[in-house]
Amino acid sequence: MMAKDSTDAKKGTLENATDAVKRAGESVKDAASHAAQNAASLNAKVIDHAEENVREAFRALRAAAGSTSVQDVVKAQTDYVKDQGARSMTQAKEIGEMIAQFGRTAMEAWRPKS
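The chain above was modelled as a monomer; its predicted structure follows.
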C-alpha cells in the first residue's frame, strides 16, 4: 500500500510540474506575441512622426522660398526650428509613454494571479 501511495505522489508531482511548464510556455508565447504587437505599434508611431516632420519641413521650405526679404527667410527658419523643437519634445514624450505602457502591461502579465 505504501508503494502505491509513493507512486501516486510522484505521479501527482510530475503532473503538477508538467502543468506549470505548460503554463510558463503559454505565458512566454503570449509575451512574445504582445512584444511583436508593441513593436508594430511603436514602428507605426515613429513613421507617423517622421511623416509629420517631413511635411512641416517642406512647409517651412515653401515659406522660405516664397519670402521677399532676408527677414522673412530668417523668420520662416526661426519659426520652423522653434516648432520642430516643440514637436520633437511632444513626439519623444509620446514614444516614452508608449514604451512605459508596454512595460507596465508586460509586468502585469507576469504577476502571479491571486
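The helical segments are 2-65, 70-110.
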